[in-house]
Amino acid sequence: MTVSTTTAQHPLLVRDRPNFEAGAQHLRVVDLFAGCGGLTLGVAQAAHGHGAGLDVVLAVDFVDAAVDVYRDNFPSANVRCASVEDFFDGELGELPTPSEQRTRSLCHDIHLLVGGPPCQGHSDLNNHTRRDDPKNALYVRMARAAELLRPDVVLIENVPAVRRDRKDAVGVTTKHLQQLGYSVASDVIGVHALGVAQTRKRHILLASRDGVLDVDAVLNDVGSKYLDLRCNLRWAIGDLVNVDNPKPYDQVPRASSANRERMEWLLRNNEYDLPNSLRPECHQNDHSYKSMYGRLSWDAPAQTLTSGFGSIGQGRYMHPELPRALTAHEAARIQGFPDYFTFASAKLRAQLADIIGNAVPPALSSAIASRLIPGLLADTSAVA
Predict the structure, then answer these.
(1) Contact at 8 Å (CB) between 253 and 263?
(2) Does the 20-227+359-383 domain belong in CATH 3.40.50.150?
(3) What is the pTM for the complete model shown?
(4) Domain definitions of the chain by residue range
(5) Whole-angstrom Cα distance, residue 209 to residue 116?
(6) pLDDT in tens, the chain (384 residues)
(7) Per the UniProt record, which EC number(s) apply here (predicted)?
(8) Are residues 324 and 253 in contact, defined by beta-carbon separation less than 8 angstroms?
(9) Could you tell me the sign of the dihedral formed by the alpha carbons of 118, 124, 127, 130, in that order?
(10) Phi, psi of 155 (to 5 degrees)
């Protein structure tokens, strides 16, 4: 069955940005390891759905291009291009450092602390420093931030493999949050069930201060909700088949002659997996990366998107009906970014690949925040 892609019915084709800053009440948010703002966008969408405005008190990321995209989409936010350690550099349980005192004076009365610490060290695709990457310790910075800011709710996003970190980043963070008086729950959630045309799964740690919210119930509710699973590639990018623009966002990736021959073979033979005989020698015989050089299907979601989406040698990223890999625009749609979210400040394809491939699908934080906001705003009204 073909899914309609008319703007009136399709959330990804909306070009007019909602006024996320307007509302009778305002949700005060801090976003660490913010990237281009995927988590923030989801929270903004949820708040807007409840008639509340968004107030980004602080957003931090160290990648210039990602911060530029964040600023373009959330012009009222206090966005800093810096390391999270510049704001939270103390040890767990220790007195605040001078920089932390300044951060705390800036960030008060925070409803929601969100963050997606770097996940490459935990990824199953990382064969070099898997589970023991120094960047894995950045996960615990979220616990320190919670200790200093005392937000009502903490939401931490990462890859499922973070649970196998050799230094037990999740366990250390959970224990510290519990010592601070937070109730903590965690789960692995698939974004396809939330209306994203992708099979990506993410680990979510959710914590509520003083038991204000039932975090177990929230995650159970989100994890058990299956929305319109017709959200396949045709639904997400079917209208972009004939778009080829010289601007990086819609520019068609150029392939080597060998890879173009591989793609044309897949189309000619109506196949989706490349036989060993047509693969490079390093990917022949016994290999665990069957999706490499694979073709996507219109009737299914994409695999987990990475920054390599522009090359079929990086995964199953060949277009369903054309001999090419995905454009940045198609990748953004597959991540769940609507067309009103602009990536125009990223002038290079490499920048777009990193920013979009490392982004968090906003549907994830939207689904969770939509279940948190009524309780948070009700609590705010009670205090007022």
Answers:
(1) no
(2) yes
(3) 0.92
(4) 20-227+359-383, 233-357
(5) 20
(6) 334 444 457 999 999 999 999 999 999 999 999 999 999 999 999 999 999 999 999 999 999 999 999 999 999 999 999 999 999 999 999 999 999 999 999 999 999 999 999 965 544 444 444 445 455 689 999 999 999 999 999 999 999 999 999 889 999 999 999 999 999 999 999 999 999 999 999 999 999 998 789 999 999 999 876 666 679 999 999 999 988 788 899 999 999 999 999 999 999 999 999 998 898 877 766 655 678 999 999 999 999 999 999 999 999 999 999 999 999 999 999 999 999 999 999 999 999 999 999 999 999 999 999 999 999 988 555 444
(7) 2.1.1.37
(8) yes
(9) positive
(10) -130, 120
Residues 6+ apart with CB under 8 A from 380: 25, 111
Token pair recorded at residue 271: 């196949």
Beta bridge partners, 270, equal: none
Nearest C-alpha neighbor of 147 from the set 90, 228, 197, 202: 90
119: annotated active-site residue: yes
Q: With H, G, I as helix, E, B as strand and everything else as coil, classify residue 140.
A: helix
Distance CA 102, CA 100 (A): 5
Q: Give CA angle at 179 (202, 173), nearest 5°.
A: 30
Q: Which amino acid is at 337?
A: F
- Domain 233-357 superfamily per CATH: DNA Methylase, subunit A, domain 2 (3.90.120.10)
Which residue out of 36, 107, 119, 231 is catalytically annotated? 119
Nearest to 154 by CA among 134, 174, 179: 174
